[in-house]
Amino acid sequence: MTSFRDRVRGVVASTALGDAMGAPIEKLTYEGIKSQYGRVESIMTRWHKMDLPADVRLGRVRGDGIVTDDTLMTVALMNVYNTEGRHLDAYDMGNEFVKEIAFRKTFVPELNQETYIIDRLFYPEKYIFMRHVLANCDPREGGMGNMVNCGAAMYIAPIGIVNAGHPKAAYDEAILFAMGHQNSYGLEAAGVLAACVAKAFEPGVTVDDIVETAVGLAKDGTKAAIKELTNKARALRAERDDMDKVIAEFQAIMLKYSPMGDDVSRHIDKVGVPSNHYTPSRLWSIEELPMALAFIVLNDGDYYRSILDGVNSGRDTDSIGVMAGVILGAMYGHEVISTSDIEQLNKVNRLDLFAIADQFSDVAANIIKDDLRAHEARRSILE
Q: Which residues fall in a coiled-coil region (predicted)?
């Protein structure tokens, strides 16, 4: 039986793995990836922007296992739990989490230097600093007005860990915490992914169990997108080697819930032009979580193939890889991950993924034990 510690290691290492798999090809379309790479099969992949001038790529480097903000933010959230030793809410977003991303230096691999995580973050993640530090908002209103994206969901897996085996509690805590960062379907995705990770810790859990949990807890467009995409994935299992067909059908469904499609880059010609990109809606969903779940279903939980199919589908490739990875990492534990991949991730990112995971595992286990004691105390009320 896979231990709790092994599963936590699986989640943490899979965050880095999925991130590093997808980072070199992020924002390329499915066809663009096919044209330039054929198919990405390894973390040892050269970044498609690496030959551009340094100022064009904002001084960043990627490829060969380098991770991005998905991993850095996940570690930052674990650090908050390590500091507080309890469940979190939006006030912790506006306190310790802000300190982790904006006031405490760490090694940022893309920049190859010790600096603040916020120096690397995308605009909707920088919004955390603006709202909580500069605007001094009510923490529970921190996500209001933000661009709606996957930014909260991409680092939310630790909340699933501290609520392992209790998906509804994971969903609730993720919403309470991430409302300090995101809103609308971006917030909803964070809750659902945390619930999927919590469910994946249950011994004997199946892919169908996890999807049922996601559909059961998800609301509005997020629920509809997950349900429709995973149903389509089941129908396409016999044709999963025909990736052209799989991607075409998945993305056609997703277009109903995410109007951006392949139009993921910002440029001067789009300034002032109205669109529905990043705007709140009860009808829409982020793309990354439904796609990750669909690839897990398509491949019946095969670890590497699910992640690789996800990142090769294009667009927000690293976050799709992370979301598929953390669910499957929780299911299987770290043994499913290649030792050489873990060694490369540690080396190039100056990390010790298992040490990070083990420290957090001890904290998470204590939080769960406190919950169980409280549950038993409540049970006595009925006796």
A: 219-246
